[in-house]
Recover the amino acids of this structure.
């Protein structure tokens, strides 16, 4: 757990630095990886929210996941879906979609 907490702190710091630049693709990537960490920390609602926020950011940028990240993304989203019922997953995802990346709740 200690390493996951340190990773989260590192990613939150990186996201803040990208935000200050501003470099929105970097922020979106950090939010995506924060979602992966939420899965590993058994926080499926948080993970689904962060996945939704990262997806919305990529859509706003006209960007997509990097091919190297796609398999991990699919695996973690699939796992998150098994941890929540359909309605809860969709609600959390939609909350993330509506959340601006500047919102502290993404970190």
């Amino acid at each position: 757990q200690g390493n996951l907490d340190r990773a989260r702190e590192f990613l939150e710091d990186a996201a803040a630095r990208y935000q200050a630049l501003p470099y929105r693709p970097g922020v979106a990537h950090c939010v995506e990886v924060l979602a992966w960490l939420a899965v590993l920390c058994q926080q499926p609602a948080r993970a689904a929210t962060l996945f939704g926020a990262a997806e919305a950011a990529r859509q706003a940028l006209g960007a997509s996941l990097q091919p190297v990240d796609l398999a991990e993304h699919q695996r973690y989203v699939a796992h998150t879906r098994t941890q929540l019922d359909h309605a809860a997953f969709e609600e959390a995802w939609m909350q993330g979609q509506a959340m601006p990346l500047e919102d502290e709740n993404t970190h």
The CA atoms of residues 35 and 63 lie 18 Å apart. The two ends are 18 Å apart (CA to CA).
